[in-house]
Amino acid sequence: MGPQRILFITPNFPPYAQAGAARTGALALHWARQGHKVTVIGARIGTASGIHTELDHPNLATHMLPIDKSEPQGSQSGADTKATPGSKPGKLKRWLWLARQMPDRFRANWVPRAVQKVIELGGDEAFDLVYSSGPPHSVHIAAGQIASATGLPWICEQRDLWVDNPYIERHPFLTRYYEWQGRRVQRRADAFVAVTDGARQTLARQTGKRVELARNGWVESDFEGLTPLPEPLDPGRLTIIHAGLIYAERRDPKALFEAIAMLGEDRRKVRAIFYHDEYGFLDQRIAEYGVSDSVEVHDFLPRSEVLAVERAADVLLMCRWPDPAEDHVIPGKLFEYIGARRPILATGLESGEAVQIVRDGNFGIATQDPSRIAEQLRSWLALKDAGGGRIPDLPEGPAHAYTRDKSFVVIDELIEQVMGR
């Protein structure tokens, strides 16, 4: 495939990408390094700044657009959007507001700005292909409108499903509208990309169109300078790091906390560190199982710092929802953990694609049984003592089966075929 002019529509993009959206920046750099001209339409997500560093490549241009109603400069004060003090919107107004926010908060203001920006940049004269990656799924509304207006081919990547997503909970009426909207938008796409095999099958059933599986993966360059054996994060205690998102009542570390409580005096030798909490959920669990002397909760770290922490840790924790709906969900952090080459402890559902990857690669243990986890913790403690304060790295070979470049080759082939339509 010769150089293409790729219009990449994705609100979550460095430096404003959320913790789980490292894939978008890696994909843009992958294309840019191949010689493609990549133009990104992203969003200025204030809560996501500081997690990722800004990307720089001569073949990469980014346009980060605001999300809220008022423009950042020279606009009205926004007084017309505020209710009168003491007033409360009626139920009809509330429902209309919720409908206007479907599928997410990017719909009302960011979508029209994204479409307008593409027109200003030249539309079909400036680009060869539209590629959207969500969530947020409003990105696909913008991409569909751009594809309709320009006639450009459109590939729709769903890192999480829009329709039939087990993590989405709304009022039944709003869910029907949400999924109707998703099915309607999806009809316009020429092809799809999914990140799990279950999502691939679901999208193929929903759309009847071509869907390629391109899993998340880890990037070797992320660990440059971190490959030699680092000093252990804590030479005297077994350090367990959870660097992903905690979803209250779903991705729940209670099995680990129960296991730590079973260790007796050895619990003092265990130190579990979390870099995210949701609504104080972890604090409640810590108090419930009485493990405050072994568990710490910290704010998000910049990704470069998190990678260093993962390399220096003893064990990396992946929490999963103990529900069959989780079978076809693979946390993006799993692949980063694999790249860090530290043992993985996967709690929650003991089946599914994520667990299969852990078991096939001998990357660690996957169980929800606290007694098995306690036994494994004792084994890791002995291994740490024998290793002079550090558990040895996992073998390098199996990890290389899960690099992002291998996954992105599938997308390259799909683009070539779509462009040859």
Automatic annotation (TrEMBL):
Protein name stated in the entry: Glycosyltransferase
CDD domains from the UniProt entry: GT4_WbuB-like
GO MF annotation terms: glycosyltransferase activity
Keywords (A to Z) from UniProt: Transferase
One Pfam family, short name: Glyco_trans_1_4
SUPFAM superfamilies assigned to the protein according to its UniProt record, in alphabetical order: UDP-Glycosyltransferase/glycogen phosphorylase
Annotated region described as Disordered, given as residue ranges: 65-90
Glycosyltransferase subfamily 4-like N-terminal domain location: 21-212
Keyword Nuclease tagged: no
InterPro entries: Glyco_trans_4-like_N
